[in-house]
What does this fold into?
Amino acid sequence: QLVESGGGSVQAGGSLRLSCAASGYTYSSYCMGWFRQAPGKEREGVATISTEDDTADYADSVKGRFTISKDNAKNTLSLQMNSLKPEDTATYYCATGYVGGALLRPQSYSYWGQGTQVTVS
It folds into this structure.
């Protein structure tokens, strides 16, 4: 089970930190990530992190602004979002259960949280 938290409303230029609490089985996936979906748009990859060596990968649109991290002791995945822009407005999802394929591709993951809303005005 994956449970996201930390979403909310913020002004452009502000920051938010998202968290995802994962059960032990889902946390053991090779790779975990954050994805987002804006109204009328397809779900897209934001950032992923390897559970083996902490290698991170980011979408070009968030590089330098977002940072993904994990806490193995607490089985949590986090996304620090700085310098937020209105175009970052979306529902953000935590994902794990990597099944193969491109790391930032939503179809590469089998377990999803319920999502948390981020609104930037």
Notes: The first helix runs from residue 24 to 27. The two ends are 31 Å apart (CA to CA).
